[in-house]
Design goal:
single chain; mainly alpha
Length: 269
């Protein structure tokens, strides 16, 4: 009809093409297969480890116990050293202003807010701020010596495990070889390879297990010893700095008191 406008339809965007059903089934099947393979591998690994423990004899269970104890000690000491660590420079910078202003009560409160070895050493000096330098130095040294056994606690267990586990593995080697020769003697010197391999297998498993536990234990001890030395260095540095701050503030206060007394005597004259 004349005068009537015809509007053409606006083309709409087509939605994303859907995946075919067979492709979706293939993806689900492959995902299930991947999960199943991972579970099978994990179960196979666990069964293989149990088989190693059984064929390694009773000494393998002792080595396993040593490994559990070594892991527990390492984690406990690592967390303890992490909690005991502090930025000594920032701590001393905050305490120096309080000590110079002779505000020892607030300085002790700051140390009590985080009771760690470094702050306990500093607090031991702050409890006797008016003592001379020689006595303060002895107080700080004694407080640091009391903290060292707490820091070194249980580290000897890691060293013992690092030394004992190879010896336990060697003992397993000897017992395994004895078992192999017992099989030979029982058969008048004639034995199959399967009969002899049991003792040799046991000897190799115990040796490998002992070394596998001893090496990480020694490495863990070396790492913890380095952390321990760093903490001891922080305690010594904090003790020396606090002794210097206390003695310097005491000298300044005595000079100020002497000046005030001289001025008062001059005014009286």
């Amino acid at each position: 009809m004349p005068g009537k406008r015809v509007v053409s339809p606006v083309p709409t965007k087509s939605s994303a093409p859907e995946l075919p059903e067979y492709l979706l089934l293939a993806i689900c099947y492959s995902a299930r297969m991947a999960v199943g393979v991972a579970l099978c591998r994990r179960l196979a690994y666990k069964s293989r480890m149990v088989d190693y423990m059984q064929k390694g004899g009773p000494l393998m269970w002792l080595i396993l116990l040593c490994s559990v104890v070594a892991v527990a000690v390492f984690v406990e000491r690592l967390l303890y050293y992490h909690r005991a660590s502090i930025n000594v420079e920032e701590l001393l910078q905050g305490l120096s202003n309080l000590i110079r202003s002779r505000n020892f009560a607030e300085a002790r409160v700051e140390c009590q807010a985080s009771l760690i070895p470094v702050t306990r050493v500093i607090q031991a000096a702050l409890n006797r701020p008016h003592f001379p330098r020689s006595e303060l130095r002895e107080i700080v040294q004694e407080a640091a010596q009391l903290e060292v056994p707490r820091l070194e606690r249980n580290l000897g267990i890691l060293v013992a495990i690092g030394y004992i586990c190879p010896l336990v593995g060697l003992l397993g080697t000897v017992t395994g070889l004895i078992q192999a020769f017992v099989q030979l003697s029982a058969n008048n010197g004639y034995a199959t390879l399967a009969e002899i391999s049991g003792g040799i297998y046991q000897s190799l498993l115990t040796t490998a297990g002992g070394l596998a536990v001893a090496i990480p234990a020694i490495l863990g001890y070396c790492h913890l010893s380095a952390r321990l030395n760093h903490l001891i260095h922080d305690m010594e540095r904090a003790g020396i700095e606090v002794v210097n701050l206390l003695t310097d503030s005491e000298e300044r206060s005595s000079i100020i008191e002497f000046d005030a007394a001289s001025k008062a005597a001059g005014e009286q004259r």
